[in-house]
Design a protein that fits this description.
With 421 residues, this protein is an all-alpha fold. It is built from 20 helices and no strands.
Length: 421
């Protein structure tokens, strides 16, 4: 097994070959999961297919087959396929019915935010009692500084993390360690959320949750798709790609213009990620999708727009998996234990709130992932419940972008006080 911090000697460096491997993995998972009897039926009754779609690619990184830092596949998937998926999934959705899901989605989202803000300081405090030498200090390589960047990542995403990195002047060594903690712990937690999606009915019964609004939205979406379903011709697929990627082009153009304007004319707004082009890319793609859902473009759902969007999501999931190197746990086990305690506190608070307000498991999972994973993975978890629910994940992730830097900054100050820095 390669060193967790050195996969520069990867066996495969050609992205075309890597993409071929990812396509083969996706094909294998879908083929085996479609077998309706025997071992594979029992296997996928326990392990969600979507989970394998991101776990199996991670093995390519763990065993040194691929170096994700040299690959451009995730960049392409997140900048081109993700916004296209957001457009196609959102234009296919029944937004008025989605908004009728009620306030529980926001309650669970902000509970997840509170879980991150409380979990980090509490995990650091517990560590200071057990191993005080590990958490002390105030230099650039202080542990609390690295943890502050994870708080930024876990309340919004990478733009917020980058902002916190600059605000707290984080040292490169501690930052690289906590990047590994961030990626692996977040992906382990995402695996749990995908398991929740696969077992949602049992969990909703345990939570005594009323999921009738979610079920009604599913049924309404499926009825619309059935009513408008048709065997897609080549022109329909071209229309789907035209709408999706024209929207991506417009979103990129707007994102570059707006981020540049805020960077020059309102630099103080960087704390809200308004100078970050990815923030605007996600927001504009979502807005375009929302607008199109009220136009005849929504009829493209019957020709498979939602399925094409879901395909893009699966490709994104596979490229996300490439960024997880399980071997990194060996390099700094103590920090991973802190990260696991942190996410456990976040999870405990969400579960307690779900019981208190009888929130469906969907709101628990998506409220959590909109914080922990941001726009790149919140719609993935939402779509695991049903493709029509992906917009909920997107909208909550946008809220995470807005509040993430402020919340992480405050969390960092609390952790600084605990560390005595």
């Amino acid at each position: 097994m390669p060193d967790a911090t050195d996969v520069a000697t990867a066996m495969i460096t050609n992205d075309a070959v890597v993409f071929g491997l990812l396509a083969a993995i996706l094909g294998l998972v879908f083929w085996t999961s479609s077998i309706a009897s025997g071992f594979w039926k029992r296997f996928y009754g326990v392990v969600p297919a979507l989970l394998l779609c991101y776990f199996l690619p991670s093995l390519l990184t763990t065993f040194g087959v691929v170096d994700p830092e040299k690959s451009k596949l995730y960049f392409v998937a997140s900048r081109y396929l993700l916004p296209a998926a957001l457009v196609l999934l959102t234009l296919s959705a029944d937004l008025p019915a989605t908004l009728k899901l009620g306030p529980k989605a926001l309650i669970m989202f902000f509970t997840g935010t509170a879980g991150v803000m409380l979990g980090g300081p509490l995990a650091l405090l517990a560590t200071s009692w057990i191993a005080p030498d590990l958490v002390g200090g105030n230099g650039p390589e202080a542990v609390w500084r690295g943890m502050a960047t994870v708080a930024g990542s876990w309340i919004g995403g990478s733009p917020n993390q980058a902002a916190i990195y600059e605000i707290f002047d984080v040292g490169p060594n501690i930052f690289s360690i906590w990047i590994a903690v961030d990626v692996i712990v977040a992906n382990v937690w995402m695996a749990v959320l995908l398991w929740i999606a696969a077992n949602q009915q049992k969990l909703d019964q345990a939570l005594k949750a009323d999921s009738t609004a979610i079920e009604a939205l599913r049924l309404k979406t499926e009825a619309y798709e059935t009513e408008h379903a048709r065997i897609p011709e080549l022109k329909h697929l071209v229309f789907i790609l035209a709408v999706g990627f024209t929207a991506v082009g417009l979103a990129h153009f707007g994102a570059e213009s707006l981020s540049a304007w805020f960077k020059i004319n309102a630099p103080a707004m960087s704390r809200l990620s308004l100078d970050n082009s990815f923030f605007w890319l996600v927001l504009l793609a979502t807005i375009i999708g929302v607008i199109l859902s009220f136009t005849p473009a929504r009829r493209l759902q019957g020709a498979g727009a939602m399925k094409v969007g879901s395909l893009f999501v699966y490709v994104l999931v596979a490229t996300v998996g490439l960024n997880m190197n399980i071997a990194a746990v060996v390099e700094a086990p103590a920090y991973f234990l802190i990260g696991l305690l942190w996410i456990a506190i976040h999870a405990a608070l969400l579960i307690a709130m779900a019981f208190a307000i009888k929130a469906p498991s969907f709101f628990l999972a998506v409220g959590s992932q909109a914080n922990i994973g941001g726009a790149a993975s919140a719609p993935v978890v939402a779509a695991a419940f049903h493709p029509s629910l992906a917009p909920v994940g997107v909208l909550l992730a946008v809220v995470g972008y807005i509040v993430g830097t402020f919340a992480a900054w405050f969390t960092g100050l609390v952790m600084q006080a605990i560390a005595g820095g």
